[in-house]
Amino acid sequence: MNTAFSDAMRAFAPSLPLAVAFSGGADSTALLVACAERWPQQVRAVHVHHGLQAAADDFERQCVSLCAQLNVPLAVRRVQARHAPGDSPEAAARQARYEAFRAAVQQDWAHDAVHDIAIAQHADDQAETLLLALSRGAGLPGLAAMPARWVRDDVTYHRPLLGVPGAEVRAWLAARGVPWVEDPTNADEQFTRNRIRARLLPALDAAFPQFRSTFARSAAHAAQAQELLDEVAAQDLAQAGLPPAIARVQGFTRARQANLLRHWLRRAHGQQPSAAQLQELLDQVAACTTRGHRLRIKVGTGRVERRGEVLDFVPSGEP
Ligand SMILES: Nc1ncnc2c1ncn2[C@@H]1O[C@H](COP(=O)(O)OP(=O)(O)OP(=O)(O)O)[C@@H](O)[C@H]1O
């Protein structure tokens, strides 16, 4: 019974002390309880109070109460995530959450040497992420879905439950009799992710009972292919120069140019060109064969221009 959850926890080997990102919901409650049982005195919890919804205070109360019961030190971080027009509120909240995690590690536990944080996404979340990516026409980085482990700002993040079906996480928790708070927005089918969870996952379960592990395999293939593309892009960019020389870029095949330019814009300027912008940029690079040829194209939050022999990214608002 519940072997997937217990097996995943047994296989989890973070550095200690470990912090758990604790929302008060079922998944992170299960993860926190399991970690606190396994590594007594070595676990911390961080809760981000979003102030986005009326229920935020209930979440915080629940976190304070469970951590007191488990004898786990809790850091509560308050954020007010404002999203720029056109950006999704969930993306802004996620960004604010990671900044809060970093602040907890660097400020609340500065003397505690916490370098690892575990978050509680499971196999259903992974399948939803992949379906969400498909629904948006994502490329390989989106299809790679969520990694089980990654490093950001000197913090190592872990998702130890990524292979465990959501129902097994809840069943493990229910068997312990530990309470959790249900996020009221999870039932709101205005959000695509919630529609996927409520309508698609049950249909997939009925048609392809193994979909969680086969989807995860596809995501892993995509992640591996993307790693390779990043390596190739880094080599090609080193050859093209920074900023990239137009003539050198033209020396690559169109697919490699696309890979190189996407990489340059993302890594050097934090920009994600749309598919249409990238095609336009590639067309203009191909047409750029005379000294006087001008190149100017909107990309992300700015534009790419020709400056002499090289491509230049100019943020919006700059002449
Ligand atoms: N407000 C928060 N404070 C701290 N950690 C959070 C918060 N919200 C989410 N997390 C972490 O990020 C993970 C994914 O968040 P998401 O909102 O997608 O999860 P969820 O399915 O609602 O999970 P849970 O049941 O644990 O809330 C959570 O499992 C938790 O580890």
From TrEMBL:
GO cellular-component term (any): cytoplasm
Residues annotated as domain tRNA(Ile)-lysidine/2-thiocytidine synthase N-terminal: 19-198
Major place of residence: cytoplasm
GO biological process, one term: tRNA modification
Catalysed transformations (reactions): cytidine(34) in tRNA(Ile2) + L-lysine + ATP = lysidine(34) in tRNA(Ile2) + AMP + diphosphate + H(+)
CDD domains (UniProt xref): TilS_N
Catalytic EC class: ligase
InterPro entries named in the record: Rossmann-like_a/b/a_fold, TilS/TtcA_N, tRNA_Ile_lys_synt, tRNA_Ile_lys_synt_N, tRNA_Ile_lys_synt_subst-bd
Subcellular location: Cytoplasm
EC number: 6.3.4.19
Keywords assigned by UniProt, alphabetized: ATP-binding, Cytoplasm, Ligase, Nucleotide-binding, tRNA processing
Alphabetical list of HAMAP family matching this protein: tRNA_Ile_lys_synt
Record-linked PANTHER family: TRNA(ILE)-LYSIDINE SYNTHASE-RELATED (PTHR43033)
Function: Ligates lysine onto the cytidine present at position 34 of the AUA codon-specific tRNA(Ile) that contains the anticodon CAU, in an ATP-dependent manner. Cytidine is converted to lysidine, thus changing the amino acid specificity of the tRNA from methionine to isoleucine.
Notes on the domains: The N-terminal region contains the highly conserved SGGXDS motif, predicted to be a P-loop motif involved in ATP binding.
Family the UniProt entry places it in: Belongs to the tRNA(Ile)-lysidine synthase family.
Protein name: tRNA(Ile)-lysidine synthase
